[in-house]
Amino acid sequence: MNSKVIFFDIDGTLINFDGEFPESAKAALKAAKENGHKIFLCSGRSKCQIEDRLLEFGFDGYVTASGAYVEYEGQEIFSSYMTEAQLKKLISFCEENEIIYMLQCTDSTVSSKRCLEIMRQGFLARMKDKKASNLEKIFAKKKCDDNIVGNADKYFNAEKLCYHNSKKDPDEVGKDLGEEFQVTSMSFSEMQKTSGEITIRGVDKALGIKKVIEFLGASWEDTVAFGDGPNDYEMLEYVHTGVAMGNASDDLKALASLVTTPINQDGIYNGMKRLGLI
């Protein structure tokens, strides 16, 4: 078998919604590396939101912020940031519609003090005490700024925006913002109608994967990806072999090359075993 380049979503794919990183997944990842395959995280999280246990695991690189930032062996190979005008438009839209939001930058997350506290408490309520340490990493590098529009020039590395508690569903938000933005539902099923992520149209996980392939001089035929959520559609559709977790939505499973077992039933290990990667 040729060496493969394998991409893994984090939430719902590598890390379950209890904040656990299954031992079977760790074993599969280590075995894949031993077999000569390259492994990449491919997440909607910005790099500053990725936990140390993942950063220190031994991944060859990262596609973060849904494709806006790409790194290989510690070297940045691609980045795409919002313009000041785009950033102002998004923040103003959220403020005018009383939407809770968090701006994701490469090195920090930024929002008003009010928004950050509401989001943090909301996630804690859903994730409960045993997952608090996982949540703290996501919010660790937060910045409070009650005048992001006025200070927009400071956030030159703004990658995407996540929003919560919207009275508009993602389709309505997308129509209001226009063609320059892509709006995607959140991975948490109970939040998909009221919460989402906003990226620059054309900047997605598939683009990040293309940048990796180009940099490595790898073949598209050797790409594999594992995912479970709404922001994994482009990724699974683009790669040669897209694997949907057993806990993924039915529409994601429909476009996948393979459906493995759920994350809590050794989904990563079983999927990689079926593909002959380990």
TrEMBL record:
Q: Which InterPro entries match?
A: Cof, HAD-like_sf, HAD-SF_hydro_IIB, HAD_sf
The UniProt keyword set, sorted, is:
Hydrolase
Q: Which PROSITE patterns match?
A: COF_2
- The reply to whether Hydrolase figures as a keyword in the UniProt entry is yes
- Lineage, top-rank taxon, reads Bacteria
One GO term describing the cellular component:
cytosol
Q: Which residues cross the membrane?
A: none
One short Pfam name that applies is Hydrolase_3
The protein depicted here goes by the name: HAD family hydrolase
Originating species? Pseudobutyrivibrio ruminis
